[in-house]
Amino acid sequence: MKKLYPNASAALDGLLRDGMLIAAGGFGLCGLPERLLDAIQASGVKNLTFASNNAGIDNEGIGKLLRTRQVSKMISSYVGENKEFERQYLAGEIEVEFCPQGTLAERMRAGGAGIPGFYTRTGVGTLVADGKEVKEFDGEDYILERGIFADLAIVKAWKADETGNLVFRKTARNFNQPAATCGKVCVVEVEEIVPTGSLDPDGIHLPGVYVQRMIVGSPYDKKIEFVTTREREAA
Asked: What is the pLDDT of residues 31-80, one digit of tens each?
């Protein structure tokens, strides 16, 4: 099965439709599937639901799709650095399902493992628990959280071999690994593709069985979310 495609638009061909649920990797500006998000924006699909730790920042990451009003719902744990996201939410223009960070990662992992739901203490007694089933285990209350089964997963990896085995770089591993497993189809952009057999089997973070399509997205610009500087000390 050929997994390598020439560009993001080709890799997403036939997969996009209005109203779909997309699981996206990344954390802030780290490990974002930038090329795939740009292609989704260019496609014009709308009424999308994204399951992602955050929505990027203004005009970066999923933030680009917020600007073009292609996102109708976010399932996220953190939304604090995106003013357009905040504006749309406060104006009632977008639906937001807040989800604790660890719970969101586990919901993706559960979906990838075929687990429809699990119980957790996180969120008990808060707004997170509203409308959810509560069950007692060993004298403690737990709430039922549903696994995420996405129509499409888009992720960013550092290296891949020709069969789709992936290696993530440092903190870019964050949500990319669980997100990749929970989509019916997983499309990956990578910085480098190496020959099959050249990756250390013990160093592979995600087996190629989860990956259906790949592109090489390099080169990338290193974007900094907050630039903090100080005056240079006198010699």
From this structure: 999 999 999 999 999 999 999 998 888 888 899 999 999 999 999 998 77
Q: Give which of 193, 140, 144 is closest to 165, Cα–Cα.
A: 193
Residues 6 or more apart whose Cβ sits within 8 Å of residue 144: 117, 118, 119, 132, 133, 134, 135
Tell me the two tokens of residue 219. 């080169």
Show the CA angle centred on residue 154, arms to residues 205 and 70, nearest 5°.
160
Strand (E) or helix (H) holding 178: helix 176-181
Superfamily of domain 8-100+108-113+148-216: Glutaconate Coenzyme A-transferase (3.40.1080.10)
pTM: predicted TM-score of the whole model, two decimal places? 0.92
- At a CB cut-off of 8 Å and minimum separation 6, what does 200 contact? none
Radius of gyration over every alpha carbon of the chain, rounded to an integer in angstroms? 19
pLDDT by residue (tens digit) across 1-21? Answer: 789 999 999 999 999 999 999
The structural domains of the chain, with segments of one domain joined by +, span 8-100+108-113+148-216
Please tell me the distance from the alpha carbon of residue 179 to that of residue 147, in angstroms, as a whole number: 11
